[in-house]
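Narrative of activities, Objective 1.

The group set out to show that a structural description can be obtained from nothing but a protein's sequence at a throughput compatible with the screening campaign. Below is one input-output pair from the validation batch, recorded exactly as produced.
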Amino acid sequence: MKTEKIKVAAEQYKQSLRTPVQSSSDPVLDGPDQIRKYKSLADEGIITQEEFEAKKKQILGI
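Output recorded for this entry:
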């Protein structure tokens, strides 16, 4: 049961990487804060290193 919730949460994070949507209740993060957030997700194994690198390039505009 608990592992299923983790898998669902991981998929939601991955989906948010593909289609970033900013909610009015979400705090606006600057580039370095966003990169730190996604690096943390990569370190925890929620996203892959490749997904992190792709998101970092998107944030940096490269």
